[in-house]
Amino acid sequence: MKRTSLLSLALFVLLLLLWEGVVRTTGVSALVVPAPSAVLIVLLEGLTVGFLWPHIWVTSVETLAGFALGCIIGFIAGVILGEIEFLRQLLWPYVLASQVVPKLALGPIFIVWFGFGMTSTIVITALICFFPLLENTMTGLQSVSPNKRDLFRMLGATRWQMLIKLKVPSGLPVIMAGIRIAIVLALVGAVVGEFIGGSNGLGASIITAQGMMDSTLMFALFIVITALGLLFYQLTILVEKYLLSGWMKGQDQ
Predict the structure, then answer these.
(1) 224, 43 contact by CB (below 8 A)
(2) Is the pTM of this model over 0.85?
(3) Which residues of 120-174 form beta strands (DSSP E)?
(4) pLDDT band for position 66 (50/70/90)?
(5) How far is CA 133 from its chain centroid?
(6) I need a labelling partner for 138 at 20 to 30 A (CA). Which of 8, 26, 32, 156 fits?
C-alpha cells in the first residue's frame, strides 16, 4: 500500500514537472495555461494574506449545510418510500423527474424564490444530495436477509422495531455509500450555486477571476476546491469506518 502511494505521489510530481517544463519551453501564455509555480505563488499568497479564507468558509458552510439537509430529507424519504410500497409507486416518477432536470437550469428559479446568497446555494446543494441518500436508503432497507426478517417476525417484532433494529443496521453499508457520493456532489452543488447567484465563496471567486482573465487565480481556486473536496471525503470515510466498526461488532454478536 505504501509503495502504491509513493508511486502515485511520484507520478503527481512528474506530471507537475512536465507541465512546468512544457509551459516554460513553449512560452505559452499564462492566460491559456499558467505554470504550476505561478499557481502555487498565487495560492500561497491567497492563504497567507487571507483573502481566500472567507471564501473557503462560505463554500464550506454551504456545502455542509446543503449536505446535511439533503441527507436528512433523503434518508427520511428513503425510509418512507422503502417501507410503503403504495407511496413508492405513487411518488417515484416525480422524484425521478426532479433529478433529471439539470440543477443549473433550476438555479434562476431558486434565486427568484430564495434570493441571491447562501440560501439558494444551500437549496441547490441539498437537492443534489437528496437522491443518492434516497436511492441508497431504499436499496439498503430492501437488502435485509429474508432469514433475519422471518426471525424477527417469529419473535413478534413490530414494524418499527424491525426497521430500527434490523433494516437500518443491515442497510448501513449501502446507506454510507450514498453519503460518500453525496459529500462529493455537495461541493459541486455549492460551487455551481455560487456560479449562479453567489457573491462570496470559491465559485463566485472563479467567476470574478474569469472576468479579470486571471487564469492563474482560477487554477489556484481549482486546487483549493479539490483539497476541500478531498478533506470532506476523508472525514466521511472516517465516520463510515467508525459506524461500520460498530455494525461489524453487531453482526458478530
Answers:
(1) yes
(2) no
(3) none
(4) very high
(5) 11
(6) 156
